[in-house]
Amino acid sequence: RLRPLNAIPNAHPTVPFSSIWLISIRYRKRENRTVWDAHKRLGPVVRLAPEEVSVCTLDGLKTIYGDWEKNAWYEAFINYGTPPLVAKIHSGPHSAHKRLFSNVYSKSYVQNSSDISAFNSRILTKKVLPKIATSATTGASIDVLRLNMAFSMDTVSAYEFGSAYGTDFLDDEDACLHFLKAFAVVKNGFFWAGRLPTLTQNLERIGINLVAQAALDGQAYMENMCWKLCSLVHAAIENNSIDPTSTAPVVYAQRLSSQTKSTEKTTPSPIEGPDFLRKSVASDMLCHLIAGHETSGINLTYAMYELSMHPEFQTALRAELRSINPPLLFPPSTYGRSAFSPSIVIPPSAIPRALDALPLLNATLYETLRLYPPGAAGQPRVAPRGGAMLHGFMLPEGVVAHAAPYSVHRNEEVFERAEEWLPERWMGERKKEVAEWFWSFGSGSRGCIGKAFAIQEMLVMLAAVYTNYSSHIVDAEGIEPVDEFIAGPRAGKLILRFEKVG
Ligand code: HEM
Asked: ipTM score of the complex?
């Protein structure tokens, strides 16, 4: 059945017979670099295992991410025993699930949301900017990876649950550390369950567990934390007693009401009691907290790193940021017109639209996402019934194929000096081609649902900080990305200090 794959160049001599080489580069955290090296040597399609191939061209992306389905690896993302959107393997159930809440993640919804505008302004002026102001006054340094993860978690959870019901990781350091630690253990602990799901399940049946107890405890910790947040907001919605100082629980309310409507139309099976419905909603909420905090936190950190390494670009960016009307000056009282002044009333979409139009700010964000894609590794899909052609090679049905942002973003024919952070490539003659090859959020129906939210939150964070402060490296040792599916700084930190700019 697999004979057609023999025509594809092998990344390693053993790959036609065994998956051990692929599993070993994954386990030893070398997958992204090794697969890219194989593409450089062997061309746009390479075989990585008896039934697995990698591709790194636009045509390949279009073929695989058109409508091919996911594989069992995604079942490692199940929470509360029920799959969130990301873990739906088949297209039909996935589309139905996505319709439950995709409207509140569309770009126009996010851009016009008065809830997002209100909690962004509150989180930035009450939490983030005061911390940076203290660093500027005292000279104390800040671990911006922690800051950015906490910011991303607090914003995504405010959108899910409402600002009074979400996390407060920016001020509650213990809660933040506990969560980050639990998540780190979970990511490592589920390696075998994700990569060898059938073997893991079979061994579990005879009492051998490949998932470490610490990882199960970490998952339980995250599920408990999210369940508490869900329960508080659920009770408030049911009793019509949402805290008047809170922004709306946009995603939770949307997901709950559409799930309730869709189950009213069908008879729930015996296992689908009220608890099942609550778990199904909570499963998506936890998935969004997980998907939303780390990716954006990592990218903001690399943007701050590169801006600190490029002071002239930082100065030009600041001038651009101060050109918007009203600018995000902080603290607002010491300046004239500021978007943060309580007396200034501006429509919720004014700042997102203004930031969206700034070339240097957007180039900063997109070039950082290109060079340091937070989700760097291959996103697996399965060749459909009857098989499919990929770059002239026949892939039999069931063969796993993927592309990795790490490789796609290093094509020197599109991204000259690909290993360098060059934001100007997003403003030059070839900007259209560069944008076509940008693939940090995936593509097709399984691409990132949180893309518009993430881009807006990252733009506003960078704008608020760099309108007012310059950043400087204190300790960037270990800043290089780990070679894993989610590729954050190896050292788990980036220490900067900030200076106020008048
Ligand atoms: C810089 C920020 C982000 C990046 C780079 C990113 C990247 C991605 C990528 C590459 C995928 C496809 C993964 C695959 O198919 O294997 C994805 C899917 C997804 N992302 Fe994001 N993401 C980001 C932020 C967010 C945020 C803020 C949310 C919060 C809602 C989110 C929620 C999701 C969900 C639910 C999926 C699964 C979509 C589906 O299966 O239909 N992401 N993301």
From this structure: 0.99
